[in-house]
């Protein structure tokens, strides 16, 4: 009995030992520490935070859930605009006194953020737990100064948008502190409609627009609800504060001191829409950024726009600043000083504001642009404070199109083009200025091949017409014959040198001028082109610049909009005509204004000699029909020239044609001379 019992017990013992050995053999092999750390770092660099979590020690997992671990990494890294993350890990030198269940690694972390690069060194500890090496993680892995209860914040340090100034430093587009008028719902009188009604009256707003703002989803009784902007010192300030619930706060905004007088030149800024944001997303723009929408605000956007700075910092649990991780200072936008003269700009706008037209004033020797006006206009400040639906409707439904920029748009120049035709023909030797052409009556056609088509002149006062009389009386027939004498090929080649088909060298969006749509292939089109009709189109800005050839010995001066204090003009097109031709045409254009029989005689000023040319461009579908007429008047002073003005006004057919502009020319030159 004893022997059998002993044998049976020994058998079970052997079986138990074998079972233990088998179980031990089934346990997974413990991964080496360097493999654990490499796996953890690889997941970290990929920003696969969920894959990092299993590598953490049990102690860490007890204090932070996987969801919280992933969320903390995502919130911090996305908040700082992380774009790149590179981490290297290397074991530190062994300390003979260190515990055998711990291994320390030196981490080097490099990252690129929206504020710039950040790099730091950190120490990580691997601990042996349950036959596995695990990472003893803490928030300091993200940044050495960061504790578990701390937060990482990002502060935008706004840059100043560059200002647009005139030649004397007066503001055209500036940054200005204004009052933002608003309502605090809980402080409004009962019934609140009384406050809304009073405020609407004082601010020239519709009550329903104010109610819509008060009804926004974010509005709470204690919050300030912005309603409108007014300049500081506005006479309505005190009266607005008598409306119960009204409050002010200062806001830095874009302001346009000249308002409508320079609206098409300065343009305005506005918030990015989705399409614009998509287009500019690689340039660091944010959804709430304001950008140039039109005018110089748009074309100079890259220079005017500053680069916001940023500070990435840590706050403790109470919200107190603890450490700055990175700071990038803001870079203000560039201030741009223009050649524009505020006085001339305002004066030209006053003269034209009741017309649909455009005006350009420039210094003809230097090319400096002194005024650029388009009328009717609009107040660009309204874009900053907010455009109402009613205001937008008024602008867009106005048949005179106040948002349309006329000084930069191409029009038929009419008789304002005749001096260019004369200059080309004289330079080509195709015109004897003293030869008198026999022209009788007001209508002429070359021969029967023209069918029913004919050229009409305004006055039949002269039947023997030389160049001087043709310019003085603005004879369409004479210049049609001159163009025919040149021929289409010579006409197009020579006229094209005046900048046709080219963009004007200016930071402005200006229509490209054109002599024809597809080449001058017919005699009738050539004849009409000779006196600025047919398919010839030029912007008022280009017309003004083209006339500089008559002041600069045949050189066309480069138009200049940025002021640098220089007085010597840069030539854009050299040697277009000989100096003697330019002098001859100036003398003959004096007669247009100085001679009592000249078409521009109403602009004559005692003591000041002006030269120039009037013009009327007809917009009609067929000969003999009545249609819209646009008037032109270009003039410059001839004794030490300082001012050249080009005007274009639409719909002058019932207002004396181009003579309607004579008073404006006279007023501008008188004002400039004073």
Automatic annotation (TrEMBL):
Pfam families: MecA_N, PBP_dimer, Transpeptidase. It comes from the Bacteria. It comes from Paenibacillus ehimensis. Residues 357-658 form the Penicillin-binding protein transpeptidase domain. InterPro entries: Beta-lactam/transpept (IPR050515), Beta-lactam/transpept-like (IPR012338), MecA_N (IPR007887), NTF2-like_dom_sf (IPR032710), PBP_dimer (IPR005311), PBP_dimer_sf (IPR036138), PCN-bd_Tpept (IPR001460). Keywords: Membrane. Gene3D superfamilies: DD-peptidase/beta-lactamase superfamily, NTF2-like, domain 1, Penicillin-binding protein 2a (Domain 2), Penicillin-binding protein 2a, domain 3. PANTHER family: PENICILLIN-BINDING PROTEIN 3, PEPTIDOGLYCAN D,D-TRANSPEPTIDASE. Signal peptide: none annotated. Residues 33-150 form the NTF2-like N-terminal transpeptidase domain. It is found in: Membrane. Residues 157-321 form the Penicillin-binding protein dimerisation domain. This is Penicillin-binding transpeptidase domain-containing protein. Belongs to the transpeptidase family.
